[in-house]
Structure formats: C-alpha cells, structure tokens
User: Fold these one by one.
Assistant:
Number 1:
Amino acid sequence: MNILVTGGAGFIGSNFINYFINRDDVLIYNLDKLTYAGNLDNLKSIREKRNYTFIKGDICNSELIDYLFTKYKFDYVINFAAESHVDRSILGSEIFFRTNVIGTNVLLEAAKRFDVKKFIQISTDEVYGSLGPTDLFTEKTNLSPNSPYSSSKAAADIMALSFHHTYGLPVVITRCSNNYGQFQFPEKLIPLMIINALNDKKLPVYGDGLNVRDWIYVLDHNRAVELVLEKGRVGEVYNIGASCEMRNIDIVNLILKKLEKDEDLIEFVKDRPGHDKRYAIDSSKIQTELGWKPQTLFEHALYETIDWYINNKEWWGKIITGEYQKYYDIQYGNS
Ligand code: NAD
Ligand code: DAU
C-alpha cells in the first residue's frame, strides 16, 4: 500500500505513523507543511525506516500535489492536515478555510484524477455542534458547527461526500471526539494544563469549567483509522469515541492531583466565545460494522500521558518559547 498521509508531523498524524509504519505492507509518504503545530521530533524514532518518506509541503499547492501523485502513485490518502485549534480560529479564520477547505479540495481533485482506492477524510465530532445534557452524536445528527474551525471542517466533509456522490470517489469520513496522548501541542486543554502545572503557572479554565468533552486516547483513535482504511465502506461516515465524558474542571483537578499541586493554581477566566457546552459520541456504527472497540482506560492513559510530559521536557521546552509565547499572551493576557 502506497499511502499519502498529510499532516503527519502533527499530534494525531505522527502518532498514526509511529503506530502504522511497523506494518510490512505499507509505504508511508508524510506530507506536512510544518506549521507551528508540525514537529519532526515526533517522528525521530522512525525517520530512518525504509518504508517512510517525509515531504515538506502545503496541501493547497496543487502543482506539488500533482507532482507527488504522479511520482509516488498513491493508493490511499489519509488527510490529517488541518488547522486544528478552535481558539486560534476565533482569533483569525482565514488560514482555517484555506487549509481545511481549499487544501482538502486540492487533495480530492488529485485523488479523483489519479484513481485512488480510498480517501479518508479525518474530521471531527465538532461538526455536529453542541449537545444538551443527554443526547449523543450519531452519524445522522445534523451538521451544526459553531466555530470557524468546525465550520471549515464541516465544509470539507460535505465537499468530500459530494466527490463520492458525483464522481464515485471512494471517500470515507471519520468523526472523532477529543484526543489526548503524547506529542499533543500544548495549546490544547490537557497538555496546556500539565505544562502550566509543572511550571507552577495558573491553569486558565474557561467559564465555569463545566463544559463536557468525550475523551479518547490517540492510539484508540488511530486503531479505528486503520480499520476504516482496511474495511470502511466508501461513502460512509464513522463516528469514533470512547464514551468517556468529562467536565473540564474534573480533568484539571485530576492533573493537579497526579502532579501533587495545589488547586489554587486554577484560575477561572473569560469564556471562549460561542463555547460548545457538550460533546458525546455514539460509536456503535464502527463497533458493529468494523469490530472496533476502545482499549484504553481514561485515568490510566491520562496518568501515562502526564508521565510522558514529565519525562519529555525537552520536547515541550522548545515549543513554549517564541511563537507559542506570543500566542499565549494574546489568548490569555500575560497571566
Ligand atoms: P495538529 O494541529 O496537531 O496537526 C496538524 C498538522 O497538519 C501539523 O503537522 C501541521 O504542520 C499540518 N498542516 C497544517 N496545515 C497544513 C497544510 N496546509 N499542508 C500540509 N500540512 C499542514 O492537529 P491534530 O490534533 O493532530 O489533528 C489532526 C486532524 O484530526 C485534524 O484534521 C483535526 O481536525 C482532526 N481531529 C483532531 C482531534 C483532536 O482532539 N486533536 C479530534 C478529532 C479530529
Ligand atoms: O472534539 C474534537 C475536537 O477537540 C477537535 O476537532 C479539535 O481539533 C481539538 O482541538 C478539540 O477541540 P476542543 O475545543 O474541544 O479542545 P480544547 O483542548 O481546545 O478544549 C477542550 C475544552 O477545554 C473546551 O471546553 C475548552 C476548554 N479549555 C481549553 C483551553 C485550551 C479551557 O477551559 N481552557 C483552556 O485554556
């Protein structure tokens, strides 16, 4: 299998490559623009593998994409590449629509011309919007995205499905809930709180901290992507989630407990504009059809993740200077 993985230097994509590269039957081509979120350190342990190739480039560059499809004759495309952070999309949305919509369009057009066997669009549960206290997102839930980020992802989903409908392009969409694990960029809730706590900095909890997210360990997500690649039916959408709903404040408290830090570090700050209240996934379709099941227990994997950040200060120490600090000051003030 010749697989084009886009965004493979980011959090989920790099975890996917580190996991999947061990199969003998795959050649992986990782195309990544190396934005602030892309980090080749995530792939250090596999970069010399004979079945791995890295290409620095932008998915919006149609000439490059054409050249790469011609040269490498990809059988499969897994599109992880995206601008992925909601708060940044609220600060400025243009790059989100460029990468997440135009970039996906460039890839879909090439996949159509070059007859790929399957195109997996890595989407998100955020395209469904926000839930009341008891419902679950199913694949039939109407799309109702609320942030510039999620609306750009929803646009890409609709476009990808239209390529299936109109041209018969073998597209499959996955919509996963909130991931956590090693190599997650520290703008996201869990790594941000771990690193701030390790540095005895305030932990900025938005609003009342009672918003709910449905957490999944990144390897469970990637095992699901593997099954979708092997057996997912084209033209279909698969929700992926581990039925692990948590309030933000409870996660923050678990992190403080594990690090033996004081609750005084918590600071309730101005809420995220348009903040979605609750996400929760019904993943029965992928469980029944493809035999997927999450294998990881939340508290155990969260504690392993915290240990990973404790043991990999060099990895995040390089990140939290420069561009990150500028972003942090704009987003949180100088707290
Ligand atoms: P990330 O921000 O950590 O990584 C994104 C990667 O894409 C980076 O390596 C970046 O350099 C690359 N990239 C950005 N623009 C590019 C471009 N124009 N061309 C080529 N590469 C580009 O994101 P992540 O958290 O790993 O998310 C990966 C995918 O999974 C995204 O599509 C996201 O929407 C989706 N998703 C994320 C989560 C989550 O909890 N993080 C949950 C569900 C779905
Ligand atoms: O649901 C899947 C989505 O999960 C993915 O599509 C996105 O790419 C990913 O970023 C994530 O989006 P969220 O907005 O849910 O994740 P984030 O880590 O930014 O925030 C999680 C919750 O924590 C959310 O309710 C906002 C809150 N939060 C976040 C940050 C960064 C805080 O209270 N304080 C913070 O500083």
Number 2:
Amino acid sequence: MKREKLNVLILSILTVISVSCQGPKESETAEEKKPNIVLIYLDDLGYGDVSAYGAGTLQTPNMDMLANGGIRFTNGYASSATCSPSRYALLTGTYPWRNKNAKILPGTAPLLIDTAQVTLPKILKEQGYHTAVIGKWHMGLGAGDVDWNQEISPGPNQVGFDYSHILAATQDRVPTVYIENGRVVNLDPNDPIQVDYDQNFEGEPTAITNPEMLTMKWHHGHNNSIVNGVPRIGFMKGGESAKWSDVDMADHFLDKAKAYVGQRAESGQPFFLFYALQQPHVPRTPHPRFEGKSGMGPRGDVILEADWVIGEFIKTLEEQGLLENTLIVFSSDNGPVLNDGYYDDAVELLGDHTPAGPLRGGKYSLFEAGTRVPFITYWKGTIKPGVSDAMVTQIDLLSSIGALVGSEKSSADSQNLMETFLGKSQVGRDAFVLEATSRTALRQGDWLMIPPYPGPEVQTQVNIELGNSTAYQLYNLKEDISQQNNLATANPDKLQEMISLFESIRGLNSQQIQQLELK
Ligand code: NG6
Ligand code: CA
C-alpha cells in the first residue's frame, strides 16, 4: 500500500516537472509576441516643428529618428484643432462633434468619456495588456463637483487604464498638481485643495491683484491664481505640498514613464502606454538645462526638451530589450500656436522657423495647420522606413491597434488602417470630418470643403486664421497644400458632391450644421 502511494507521488511529481519543462504552450507564445504599444502624444506641436518634416529650422533629432526609421505620414490628422475633443476622439475612436461636451474643458469639468464607451485602452486590456496613461489628461474628471481631497472618480482608471499619473487639464489650468490613480500626489490632509473656475477664494493672490508676484506675464486670459510665479486659468487654494514644479515636469513624467516600462519589462505582460507630453503648450517652462538652447525662446526650448525626453524614453525601451517588440505611434493633439496667452517671445524669436510648415492656419483653425499634424509609426525591425501620403487619422488608431492585437472591437467612426500604419499599404481613408472649436469641414480624397461660417476670419489674440468665410471654400490640397485657391466657384460639381457627403456623415444639412455651431 505504502509503496503504491509513494509511486503515485513520484509519478505526480514527475508529471509536474515534465509539464513545466515543456515550455510555453502555443497560446502563450502568441501572447508573448503581442507587441507593446506606446503612443507618444505632444500638445500643440505643429506639422513643421519636427525637422524630419522638412519645413522648419528647429532640429529634433530624436523625433527624426522615429520619422526616418518608421513611416512618416504627410496626411496624418488629429480629429480636432483643440485638445480635449482631439483626445476624446483618439481614445474612443469617435468623432468629437458627436459629443456636445467635447470642447476645451476647464479643470473642473466632469469626465468626457462615458464609462460604458469602448476605448482603446479597454480593448487592449481585454487582449491581455497592462495599460497606463502618463502626462496630460484634459478629458475631465469625476462626475461634476470633484472633491480634490478624496478619491477622484471616474477618471482614466475607469475608462480602461490600469495605471494613471496625470495632470488634470493643462499646464495653464488649475489644479496644478499631479494625480495618480485618482489621488492627488503629496497632498497634506491639513492643507486641502479647493478649485473654482468662477470665483477666487478670499485673500488669495491673483495676477490682477498681485502682479509683482509674476515671473511670467499674461497676454490674454491667464490672470487668475498664481502658482510658481505663473498666472493660470482658474482659482485654487491650498494643496501647497502637492503643487508641481513647472520646470521639472518633463523630467517628472519621464521618470514615471521609465519606471513604468521597467516594471512592465519585468512582468513580461504586454503593455500600452499613452505618454502624453505637456510640451509645447503654454506656459512654456523648460528645465534650466534647455533654457536658451533653441535661440527661439521658451517655445523652441521646450520642443528641444521634449525631443530629449523622447530620446531618453526610447533608450529605456532599448535597454529593457523591448524596442523591437514595441509599436510606437507619435503625434500631436492639434496644430501650433505662438502666442497662446503669455508673453514668452514665441513670436519675436521665431526667426525662420515655420511651426505649421507649408500649411495655413494653426491651432483653433479649420485650415490644415489646425488638424494636420506630425504622425509617425515606428517599429524597429518590423516597419520598413518610408513616407506615406495616405490619409490617416487618430480616430483610426482604435480599430487599427485593436485589429493588430486580435480584437474585433471597433467604433462607428474608426477604420482599421493597420496595413497602412505598418507601411504595407498606401491606402488610407477616403473621407474625414475635421473639427475646430465646434465648426466642421470635410476632407475627401485630395479635396477639402469648408462650409460657410460667419465668425471672425482671424483670432486676433493668437493671430491665427480660423478658416471662417461667408462663402463655401474648396481646396485641392494635392496641388495647393497652402490653401490659397478657393475652387468652390470653379468646381460646382465637386463642391456639391462634397456638401452631400458632408451632410450625410453629419446627419444634418449644412444650414442646420451652421445653426448648431452658432449656439
Ligand atoms: C484656451 C486658452 C489657451 C489654451 C487653450 C487650450 C485662454 C485665453 N486661452 O482657452 O491658452 O489653454 O484654451 O489648449 O484662456 S488645448 O491645447 O488644451 O486645447
Ligand atoms: Ca493641445
């Protein structure tokens, strides 16, 4: 009896040993092969700000390494000419104009994404990924009336991110603190934070009452609470120990991103990192290491800082042995702006640099520079370097990346263009409705149609042409990338065809669309 039991025991031990020595099962091997996905996303970086795009005079060697070692898209679009709508579209694969709240958000706005909505990080999570967002969020937090001293929810962790380390809105908006997994970092419970976008807190200095406290001057807006000498949008009180250091922000997010990659490398689980840099959005606060480096003032300096950060981050992937198993997508949330509300010499020291490259307009504009942005896919050893003129948009990343990792999930507006992103196809989207401050226009093939909008032609404070006109505008972008020749009168058939398509995608007629946008 005893001997029999011993035999059984030995047999089971041997079985365990032999099974565990067989190596990974087929499914595990496939699992291991799933590439990591990193989305490096800049804030207000223009088409001409990356030197590989051949337009400006600023040198961005690390961004160029991605561009020249991967696919550089010349017709890559953000979905909106401003931040919150653009990011919303990126993560949900949904046109921002379908969500009436998708506008530039104050720091107190509730979460823009419905927690039931499909999102890119959710899709990846379902496919076995660990998911993280590090950097700028600006898609709202909470359900309205957030208490910044408690757990802040819903937020990134409720729409698909396992880990989040973010700034809530923008660098120029309060609260000026980092939030990790729903908690303000380094918050002293004895010094609670209060935030208000309508009214100041009694006795708190503002840029109006205490201009002597400012180390950076405001040009328009940005005259509420002062943090680190920089006047912000919105009022904030308390939370002294939690306030970020502006000049250290790039290093701070880089440290977090490097630590995250290190942890993930150890775990072996594939990961998705949405690395959302804050540069070159205002206030431009380069670390002293980068001050004066560009000769173009703080805007140029923070782009060089971002470029350095990207180089360091890629080094980390390389050191961890992950670079050849990581798809990197590089882009920007909207086009460039020089003076966006502070006196920081961006206009005065620009020299020959052209942040928008050959494109007309800029941030806030329906003209190309508003939404056509640097767009690069890089995957060492897998993507063959090249340039693609195919039309691709950030909305398409949801379906495309989903398909790459074996998901069939999609959203109404997102198209699977993975073959194009990998450089195996030159075919992009046929049509795309782009958005700028609640106005929309249609790109189809080489053509762009802007319906009439009665608003101002130029936003004078930022000195950017918005794309408004009382007449229809029609441009052939292949022949006229700078949108100088309005062909609406010369091409009535093309114009009519585009108006019809525009109305059918938007589900409204042009008049209704204008009414909607005037509200
Ligand atoms: C504008 C701000 C601008 C910037 C922008 C958002 C003023 C006058 N201007 O309202 O400085 O913060 O919002 O930029 O307040 S975005 O890239 O996040 O969309
Ligand atoms: Ca932006």
